[in-house]
Design brief:
CATH superfamily: Hypothetical protein af1432
CATH topology: Hypothetical protein af1432
Strand content: under 5%
Number of strands: 0
Number of domains: 1
CATH class: Mainly Alpha
Length: 397
């Protein structure tokens, strides 16, 4: 029997009994007033009943960019159904998973939650299709679009919430996590990011966000895909082994119950299985390596946060199925092509005459260049707002 098949069959649905809750407390970010990761660029008053990362969470959820996530595509356009996930509802789901994982391991729950809440704030309208279109537009001008770096730009520059300074004035720990939670940067490529410890591994609280994100959307996209009618339950169960095992377990325990209720419970069980596996794998890897401090985590050459080999095969298999059956389906492909057309034509329209931009954006073109400012403007839009702008553009042609 091939080793991949053995690993696949061995993928667990339940946590191992040997796990000790809170076992990585020594590796957690402290978050107290003496912790350098709680430093802010501008002086801010302390709050008696909230720590620094709790205050960051509050600053994030009160930001306009955060509220606009409600009007941005996750997979299906936000106008398709009130029941489909938006970027905002997806973000809330990620924050639940991230906080649970951090709590189980004894990490800093408040930091993990803040990072989850801010992790998608840099995404433009129309999901990844909008991101691809903006990147192509910028590359014609020797630039590029990176939603992590754009998120940092938002929280440091574009959010105007305080009288004394621009930006949200988030802690160093949250700003580091914004740019490093899903990818790594080098000093050579980004000397402007030198303050974010680019030669050191990110803390575990930041590392777990990328996989919490994956767990959330792998579960949700099956749910929304079936709800939309674009995926059929029978076909999903035939091709997604982990959900099939979860569904069979739930069906055995609830004989005669309607499939839609069984599916909901099976999806919850699948999400818990993935989350539990992530918890145990992080703990196992960290303890086996003898890591017992944040400094030990930072010194590692590779990320610690990962799924077990068996569950990683499950993840890849499901993701491949979603790409082949949903993300690249004819219906979504047409939506993506339309979205890229809207973004590209509006970008070119404002590039041809930047004075057509709102006055506040046009005023920044001299310092930042029109391509970047136009990108800032488009990236901040909701799906509905950019479509309204496109109608005005078409009417003016």
């Amino acid at each position: 029997m091939p080793i991949a098949t053995k690993l696949k069959q061995a993928a667990p649905l339940a946590a191992k009994s040997s796990f000790v809750p809170g076992c990585l407390t020594l590796c957690a970010i402290r978050g107290d007033t003496s912790d350098p990761l709680t430093a802010r660029a501008f002086t801010a008053p302390e709050r008696q009943y909230r720590n620094a990362f709790q205050r960051d969470r509050e600053r994030i959820v009160q930001a306009r960019a955060f509220r606009r996530l409600a009007g941005k595509t996750q997979v299906f356009t936000t106008g398709g159904s009130d029941h489909f996930r938006s970027r905002l509802t997806h973000t809330i789901e990620v924050s639940q998973i991230a906080r649970n994982v951090a709590q189980a391991l004894g990490l800093n729950e408040d930091l993990a939650e803040a990072l989850a809440l801010v992790h998608d704030i840099g995404h433009p309208p129309f999901g990844h299709a909008g991101e691809r279109a903006l990147d192509r537009c910028l590359r014609r001008h020797g630039l590029s679009f990176d939603h992590n770096l754009h998120a940092l730009r938002i929280v440091e520059h574009f959010e105007l919430r305080y009288a004394a300074h621009r930006g949200l004035n988030l802690t160093l720990g949250v700003r580091e996590g914004i740019i490093k939670h899903s990818r790594d940067y080098t000093k050579a490529q980004h000397p402007d990011l030198a303050e974010y410890f680019l030669d050191l591994r990110q803390p575990l609280e930041a590392q777990l966000i990328d996989l919490a994100d994956e767990i959330a959307y792998l579960t949700a996209d099956l749910d929304d895909g079936i709800d939309s009618g674009m995926l059929q339950l029978g076909d999903v169960l035939e091709n997604v082994d982990i959900l099939n095992r979860c569904y069979n377990k739930v069906e055995h325990e609830h004989v005669g119950v309607e499939p839609k209720y069984l599916l909901h419970e099976a999806l919850q069980l699948m999400m818990h299985a993935l989350s539990d596996d992530l918890i145990h794998q992080i703990a196992q890897t960290t303890l086996a390596a003898g890591i017992n401090s944040l400094e030990g985590v930072r010194a590692q050459p590779e990320r610690i946060a990962a799924l077990s080999p068996a569950m990683e095969l499950e993840r890849r298999s499901e993701k491949r199925y979603l790409y082949e059956s949903l993300y690249t389906s004819e219906i979504l492909t047409r939506e993506h092509e339309r979205a890229e057309t809207v973004v590209t034509e509006l970008f070119d329209y404002w590039m041809a005459d930047p004075e057509r931009l709102p006055a506040s954006y046009y005023a920044e073109c001299s310092d930042n260049g029109a391509p970047r400012i136009i990108t800032d403007y488009i990236a901040g839009m909701t799906d509905n707002f950019i479509l309204e702008q496109y109608k005005l553009y078409e009417a003016a042609k």
